[in-house]
Amino acid sequence: MRTVYVHRVHYEPDNNCLAVKLDIEPITEFIADEPETQAVVDQWINIAFAGFRADGFEPEQLVATTTAPLDGREAVIRNQSNTLSDLIAQVML
Question: What are the backbone angles phi and psi of residue 45, rounded to the nearest 5°?
Fold first, then answer.
């Protein structure tokens, strides 16, 4: 699942109070596309991919296929070995 940080900013000029609330939300059809944001995302992806290619890696190359469910949640990955971490280790070998 892909996610996005949503920043909600509320400013009250009467008392000069600024409130910022950050939420991470899944990307669904209910989040409108923003071409300016996508352009920035594309720029950083291109920079990252160019760096990988300069180091001899092809970032879009298929390196493994699995039918097993993969759990990439931080709470799982950081605390125990699982199918995803085992797959990543095998691919790196």
Answer: -65, -45
> Cα 28 to the chain's mean position, in Å?
14
* 63 to 2, 52, 88: CA distances (angstroms): 21, 15, 10
What is the C-alpha to C-alpha distance for residues 1 and 7, in angstroms, rounded to an integer? 19
Residue 8 to residue 23: CA distance in whole angstroms: 8
Neighbouring CB atoms inside 10 A of 76's CB total 14
Write out pLDDT tens, residues 36-67.
988 999 999 999 999 999 999 999 998 778 89
Position 73, amino acid: R
Write down the domain spans for the chain. 62-93
Whole-angstrom CA distances from 52 to 38, 46, 61, 73 are: 21, 10, 11, 24
